[in-house]
Write a structure and sequence with these properties.
The complex is a heterodimer of chains A (287) and B (261).
Chain A lengths: L2 H43 L5 H5 L13 H31 L4 H15 L2 H13 L7 H25 L3 H9 L4 H29 L26 H9 L4 H37 L1
Helix pairs in contact in A: 1-10, 3-6, 3-8, 3-9, 4-6, 5-6, 6-8, 7-8, 8-10, 9-10
Chain B lengths: L10 E10 L2 E11 L4 E5 L6 H7 L10 E9 L2 E2 L7 H7 E4 L11 H5 L9 H14 L3 H4 L12 H14 L4 E5 L7 H14 L4 E5 L3 H7 L2 E7 L5 E8 H6 L4 H7 L5
Helix pairs in contact in B: 4-6, 6-7
Classes of the chains: A mainly alpha (287), B alpha/beta (261).
């Protein structure tokens, strides 16, 4: 062994160590910023959280207490309607793309869905305003659901297509070889196998729109009252956070932190649910 | 090549060619499969034996740009004739795949009865499952766990469940694509014995990599080989005993004596 070989070896070792160190640093920065945000929101918001905050209507400025109960209620209704509209359309489109994946129409559908997923949510809100709010001359919860549906659709289309495609071809052929129709093989055999992954995608899509605020500004609009009729303006939690946060009143600002904490908790729970479902999917497929 | 007469046979291929896109994988094969017997398709990798098998129940065309020329006669009628529904063909020509492919979300019972008529409920359905599972020599091992997942079974048991699933549809022909390729020797022996028993009711065509297996289980053996352009050709088809002892074609002799492949 001559010395240049040793020298090279030493240099490689240094580069290797440097690379690992750099990667660790970046990972630490990413993790730290996430933890700082989380910690900050918890510290600022946890004081606002109590039963009254979750169940009461907002109080006028100057009156202490009050809550965001109507915003939580409105969020649930608006996202519920959006989900009911997005799931059948998204799932069936995903099935269509997985089954007839080649050709001009499926390719353009895929492209359009990718474009739609990149459209800023405020533009989608504007569109909902143009087709559902302006012609009817009033804001409504339903127009917010419509905007949310458009935000969820591309996620659902592409992930359900992927989930269906990731089911082994052997399972699909096994069903076809038994004389099942293409549709029955897909819906009866392939789809249930892909279901955990599809539910995961749905939970992530819901988590995504839960925090969306921009499209709500000119669709749901917000209200100070309990509102269950999606044809009327509705309160939404994310919108209340926005309104409270930019207000000049310290009591409202405190409540904005509380609302932000609630939103983060909701997204956290949805993400944990998604992870759980994905774990089940992995278990089902490895045997 | 002993094509013989194709008339009066349950299953036969007539000048059959199969393509993947523009690539011809099987060329101009004419062969009749003996009724209620096991025909083994042997040959080196890439000789088109699996492709030929997949043409016999029209599962070949499920692949991208896969197509077929020529005829496949099932009871004298061409299954590739216009207006023939591939689904009705696949009910009459069942298939068992190289690797066990249980439907992961269905129970053993529901897997087995996946293709019995949907009108069959309760006791009748259970009876159909029992018949098929008994025929596949699996009943005693699963009778107490019909409602559990097939993924808990061993590979050999899963494969026998897949055979039961194919049998439950009451086909006339059973295609088997290297059914023991992923199994250990004991599970292989069980399946081989099963194949012999099944010829009581079914006409079986089986692809195998393994010449000893062909010699053990088949009545007739067909030897395939890719020509210099990569197109799979049928070289010779004869009684297994004769093909392995007195092959007529030089290439068959070379293959079975282990000179290539």
């Amino acid at each position: 062994m001559d010395s240049p070989r040793y020298a090279r070896l030493g240099r490689r070792r240094i580069y290797g160590t440097l690379g690992v160190a750099l990667a660790l640093c970046c990972a630490a920065i990413a993790a730290a910023s996430l933890l700082v945000i989380l910690g900050y929101v918890v510290v600022k918001g946890v004081g606002a959280l109590n039963w009254e905050f979750l169940t009461q209507l907002p109080h006028p400025v100057g009156v202490p207490g009050g809550g965001v109960g109507n915003g939580i209620w409105g969020t649930i209704i608006i996202i519920g309607i959006a989900t009911l509209m997005a799931v059948p359309v998204g799932l069936l489109t995903g099935i269509y793309l997985a089954l007839f994946g080649r050709g001009v129409i499926p390719e353009s559908l895929r492209f359009l869905s990718d474009v739609l997923s990149g459209v800023p949510s405020i533009a989608i809100g504007l569109f909902a305003y143009a087709v559902l709010v302006a012609p009817l001359k009033h804001f409504s919860g339903f127009s917010a659901s419509f905007a949310f549906m458009m935000l969820m659709l591309p996620l659902l289309v592409r992930t359900s297509e992927q989930a269906i495609r990731s089911v082994p071809q052997a399972v699909r052929e096994g069903a076809l070889a038994l004389g099942m129709s293409n549709f029955r093989a897909t819906v009866g055999i392939v789809l249930p196998t892909a279901m955990p992954a599809i539910v995961t995608a749905l939970l992530l899509a819901i988590a995504r729109v839960t925090g969306e605020t921009a499209p709500l500004l000119f669709t749901a609009f917000g209200t100070q009252f309990w509102e269950s009729n999606p044809n009327h303006p509705m309160a939404v939690l994310a919108l209340q956070v926005f309104t409270y946060a930019i207000s000049p009143y310290p009591s409202w600002q405190a409540q904005a932190w509380g609302g932000a904490l609630l939103l983060i908790l909701a997204v956290l729970i949805l993400s944990l649910g998604a992870r759980y479902m994905l774990g089940r999917a992995a278990k089902g497929l490895d045997a | 090549m002993t094509a013989g007469t194709l008339d009066g046979q349950l299953l036969a291929a007539d000048d059959l060619s199969a393509y993947y896109g523009s690539r011809k994988a099987v060329g101009n094969v004419t062969i009749a499969f003996r009724r209620r017997a096991v025909t083994a398709l042997i040959g080196p990798s890439g000789c088109g034996k699996t492709t030929l098998l997949r043409c016999l129940n029209r599962i070949h065309e499920v692949g991208f740009e896969a197509r077929v020329e020529g005829r496949v006669l099932l009871d004298g009628a061409d299954i590739y004739a216009g207006g023939v529904d591939p689904m009705s063909i696949r009910r009459r020509v069942g298939m068992v795949f190289q690797r066990p492919n249980p439907f992961p979300t269905l129970s053993i019972l529901d897997n087995t009865t996946a293709c019995v008529p949907r009108g069959l409920k309760g006791k009748d359905r259970l009876d159909a499952a029992e018949r098929a599972l008994r025929a596949a020599a699996l009943w005693d091992e699963v009778r107490d766990k019909l409602k559990s997942s097939p993924l808990r079974l061993s590979g050999g048991q899963q494969q026998r469940m897949c055979i039961a699933r194919a049998i439950a549809a009451e086909p006339e022909v059973l295609l088997m694509d290297e059914p023991t390729a992923s199994l250990d020797p004991i599970a292989t022996a069980v399946i081989e014995e099963l194949m012999s028993t099944l010829t009581k009711d079914f006409t079986i065509v089986a692809v195998t990599h393994n010449m000893q297996q062909a010699a053990r289980v088949s009545n007739v053996t067909a030897f395939m080989l890719a020509d210099e352009t990569g197109i799979g050709r049928l070289i010779e088809c004869d009684d297994t005993a004769k093909l392995f002892t007195k092959p007529t074609d030089r290439r068959t002799e070379d293959y079975i004596t282990g000179r290539f492949g």
